[in-house]
Design a protein that fits this description.
mainly alpha
Length: about 270
């Protein structure tokens, strides 16, 4: 009886803070205010066929994919180093790596502005060498840099967690059978770590494709991503209906990406692709 009561409390929490907000977003996306009252329509979704919004969507996905790929290329070797049993003071290194995540997301982004801006630390150092200052801010590179820095821990930690759970005798057995380090990595270590890789990809790509703070601060408003577009509709334009329609489309894209990675992860567990 006590267990059922606890379940109902969680169910009530989900209804109030998950189902109701989602229903309101869907309701706003399907309605429009007219002189005679509210009217159900698909006009908000039809507005998304504008090539301008396709360009925003493409740029958002492109930057998110590049950031995710860079995080994977940097994060996987880093996770292997942290998971190494020969690494001394491992806990201290993990703490130092996770420590920036305890700071506010906005502060971390502002910290990058002090590094990249025209009179920032990097350009000050370059100028001290009598070299011309670089234009480091307000471009795609700055936005990707901010995404990689902020979301890299979300790639490293799931991979690290999986790598530490791999039994050492599996790797030892492969080495006893004559496999060199590259073959051990390609045929044993990497396939076994794929659940962590897919979790990392999901945890990096989703916030990257929906972010608006990084693109606004480091991009300087030079271009618009999906997160910025939704923010503008709700906070500045006041068009909640169109903002809700964009949110629904973005939500469907996120769910599609999650279902794809989840399905691929299940195939990996079944050994179908490796």
């Amino acid at each position: 009886m006590k267990r059922n009561w606890l379940a109902y409390s969680y169910l009530g929490w989900m209804i109030v803070f998950t189902v109701v907000p989602l229903f309101l977003i869907l309701y706003y996306s399907l309605t429009i205010q007219t002189g005679t009252g509210l009217r159900f329509t698909l006009e908000q979704y039809q507005r998304l066929y504008n090539p301008v919004y396709f360009k925003v969507l493409g740029l958002s996905i492109e930057l998110a994919l590049i950031s995710t790929l860079i995080c994977l290329l940097i994060g996987y070797p880093l996770a292997m180093i942290l998971a190494s049993k020969n690494l001394s003071k491992k806990n201290t290194l993990i703490l130092l790596f996770v420590l920036p995540m305890w700071m506010n997301f906005l502060l971390r982004t502002y910290a990058w502005m002090t590094l990249l801006e025209r009179n920032g630390l990097i350009n000050t150092f370059i100028a001290s060498l009598s070299l011309p200052k670089l234009h480091l801010m307000y471009n795609n590179t700055a936005v990707i840099l901010g995404m990689v820095y902020n979301f890299l821990p979300f790639m490293v930690l799931p991979i690290y967690s999986v790598l530490t759970k791999i039994e050492p005798h599996i790797i030892e057995a492969a080495e006893d059978l004559g496999a060199d380090n590259w073959i051990v990595f390609r045929r044993v270590l990497f396939p076994l770590s794929l659940p962590g890789v897919f979790s990392g990809i999901t945890m990096v790509f989703l916030p990257a494709v929906t972010t608006f703070v990084i693109s606004r601060l480091l991009g300087g408003g030079q271009f618009t991503l999906l997160g910025n577009l939704i923010e503008q509709q709700f906070l500045y334009v006041g068009d909640w209906n169109f903002g809700s329609a964009i949110s629904i489309i973005l939500m469907l894209l996120v769910l599609l990406g999650m279902s794809f990675t989840s399905r691929y992860e299940q195939e990996q567990k079944g050994g179908g692709l490796w």
